[in-house]
Amino acid sequence: MYESHFGLTGPPFRLNPDPSFYYGSKGHSHALAYLKYGLHQGEGFIVVTGEIGAGKTTVVRMLLEELDTTSVVAAQIVSTQLQSGELLRSILTAFGVPATRDSKAHVIATLEAFLTTVAAEGRRALLIVDEAQNLQREAIEELRMLSNFQLGNHALLQSFLVGQPELRLLLKSRAMEQLRQRVIASCHIEPLDLADTKRYIEHRLQCVEWHGVPQFGPMAFERIFHCTGGVPRRINRLCNRLLLALYLASESQARANGVDAVGEEMAGEVGEAGQFATPR
């Protein structure tokens, strides 16, 4: 609605992860480097965690954008309280193998046969499990067992576990000792600081050919940071509403009081308690 009014070529603050808007903050660049390192290793588990909206999925999509599909076959699933048998069938489906309703043993054999075929073609299989904090312990144990599949000295499957901070707590439990020994790297994506919040907003605007309109007043970025805690998805939501408010008010500059007003309005909406700080 406001894009053409401000001369933008598209919406700068979409909520859906989009690699074309990727901003390489220190935390996100660190996470992407860990994923690339893990991919180079070709075995074991990489664990990436972060708060809701921290940008984990965007980092994963950046990795997938850069993958050499002639050498790596990647599949991604989103965990929603999957039991172990359901997880195995989901993995088959994600790799494009028709899922079966046969016994668990048959499903495992089908998956191993597929992974062996991939390896025999000189390629590697990568599984990315998003929202991994929702996995049942039995399902995580299944993932660990899949990491035992080998062709000669080469692992048939490598897994990246991506999830909220609860995933780290789960993996620290005594029952997860065997899987922890197979984690070759892990990192946590922290929220953006004030400087990165400003650069993040400007970067996304520049991606849609922003030429300084709307302007941001001296304290606007600081208030956005305070209201959102530096969490990218919250920043997107607040800035989207902020630009809409400017458009509706026929204004061209975002000021601190305007940010506070939008933040207060959003904090008072149903289901938003704790998402946006109220002005101090």
Write down the domain tally: 2
Report the CATH architecture of the largest domain: 3-Layer(aba) Sandwich
Radius of gyration computed on alpha carbons: 22 Å
Q: What percent strand?
A: 15-25%
Q: Tell me about the biggest sheet?
A: 5 strands, parallel
Outline type: elongated
CATH superfamily heading of the largest domain: P-loop containing nucleotide triphosphate hydrolases
Ends: how far apart? Answer: 31 Å
The name of the CATH topology of the largest domain is: Rossmann fold
CATH class of the largest domain: Alpha Beta
Secondary-structure-derived class: alpha/beta
Unreliable residue stretches:
none
Description:
The chain is of the alpha/beta class and 280 residues long. It has two domains: 26-189, 3-Layer(aba) Sandwich (Rossmann fold), CATH 3.40.50.300; 192-267, Orthogonal Bundle (Helicase, Ruva Protein, domain 3), CATH 1.10.8. It is 45% helix and 15% strand. It has helices spanning 26-41, 56-66, 84-94, 104-120, 137-146, 166-172, 177-180, 194-206, 220-228, 232-248, 256-267, and strands spanning 45-50, 72-78, 124-130, 150-151, 154-155, 157-163, 183-189, 215-216, 253-254. A five-stranded parallel sheet has the order 2-3-6-1-7, with helices on both faces. Strand 4 (150-151) and strand 5 form a beta hairpin. Helix 10 crosses helix 11. It starts with 25 loop residues before the first helix and ends in a 13-residue tail after the last helix. The model has no long low-confidence stretch (mean pLDDT 90).
